[in-house]
Predict the 3D structure of the following.
Amino acid sequence: MSRPRVSILTPSFNQAEWLAENLRSVALQTYADIEHVVMDGGSTDGSVELLEEAEGITWRSEPDNGQADAINKAFALSTGDIIGWINSDDAYVDGRVVADIVAFFEKHPGVDVAYGHCLQTAADGAVIQVLWAPRFDARLLGIVDFISQPAVFIRRRVLAEPMLDESFHFTLDYELWLRLASRGAVFARIPRILAVDRHQPERKSLTMLDIHAADSKRLSAMYGAAPAPTRFYLRQRVCGALLIPSIPAQLALSAPTDPLAGLWRRQLFSRKSTWPEEYR
């Protein structure tokens, strides 16, 4: 029996500073059947040159109508049975992430959406905290978005084109989780760190808060989601794991011989993360 193909979707616009790390983290995956689809919004900062030099990826560079449009275009181009979505300033934490996800889906054929824990870092790579993902509970999801987008993989069978609602600008991922849950998709947590979520000053979710508030009001009307201030507070209470010596065992990085996992394991306890040259 053939194993599933995994499609990784990456939207990008003028993110050359981070894009190389993103491409490298996907290229280092040990699972064989992966396609990486990158939709660039017409960057002018050297991103196109990076994409031209990258091997084994599918990419386009053209103007788009925002992140959701870029992801929808990437999804339309993709052919995988399992879909991952990782933004250009984020990365997978080690080379066995996709292999472990595929094994998890094969072991649990009834699961439609798998998600895990996530390292949250500052723009300079310093580890801020671990975003701990609790076991899935649909009622809890309506109160707090406890699922970190870079650490999610979804079976194509529960997705339809367009994958994302382009009328949302900031909570497009949360809207997708709520939509899938409302339609009966089965969610399950894989208890390990899967991705690195980078926060930076230019990140759109940290600016234009008025539009963010409008998105949140629509989610409340459509799905009964809790108000934004409540969600943000509870997300930190539910998901925020402070960096203390007694980090729960399930947060430990897997693949002990993996070079990227070793890097993040060391940096997790030192609270500082710097990518070595060979992984840039």
Remarks:
- The CA atoms of residues 96 and 151 lie 13 Å apart.
- The two ends are 36 Å apart (CA to CA).
